[in-house]
Structure formats: C-alpha cells, structure tokens
Design brief:
- This protein is mainly alpha-helical.
- It has one domain.
- About 60% of the residues lie in helices and about 5% in strands.
- It contains 5 helices and 2 strands, in the order H-E-E-H-H-H-H.
- Strands 1-2 form a two-stranded antiparallel ribbon.
- Helix 1 packs across helix 3.
- The longest helix has 17 residues.
Length: about 90
C-alpha cells in the first residue's frame, strides 16, 4: 500500500499526466505500461464486482496513447494486444 510519499511518488496529477508518465517510464522490473495493464487485467478478472473506474480509465488512455504513437508495440503484442489498432478504430 502506498502512503503517498517517498522519492519516486509523483503526487496528485491529472489523468493525462499520469498516463503519459506511464507510457514513457521504465523501472527495474520492466515498463510501467506492463504494470498498469496487468493491474487493470487482474482487477477485471479478480474483482469484476468492484470496478475501479480510475484504473480502467488509465488502462484505456494508456492503450490509446500507445496506439496513437506506436509506442511499446512489442510489449503490447507480448501481453496479447495483437490487434490494438482495430480495438480503438472499430
């Protein structure tokens, strides 16, 4: 659980800023995109009765940013997002 402090805590941010930070950031365990999308996927599967609108909006916007820029295509394909372009343009 985050206490909202520490040297890497970004503090309060707008959704767009959060998503852009996720798309451009990488940590010791991999891209932040993987972390954010795996978190959302786990919540979809394990807690469908308790949706987290903020996490799901971050998921949607991160995927949109990746789709529009072509960023992290290899990571997204590895995670199963093989047809991301069709997902957002259908």
């Amino acid at each position: 659980m985050s206490l909202g402090s520490g040297e890497h805590h970004a503090g309060p941010s707008e959704l767009e800023d959060i998503c852009r930070t996720i798309v451009r950031s990488v940590g010791p365990s991999g891209s932040n995109i993987e972390y954010a999308l795996l978190l959302a996927d786990t919540l979809h599967k394990q807690a469908p009765h308790a949706p987290d609108d903020h996490v799901f909006e971050v998921e949607r916007r991160v995927l949109e940013l990746c789709n529009s820029t072509g960023a992290w295509k290899d990571v997204l394909v590895k995670m199963g997002y093989k047809q991301i372009c069709w997902y957002f343009h259908s």
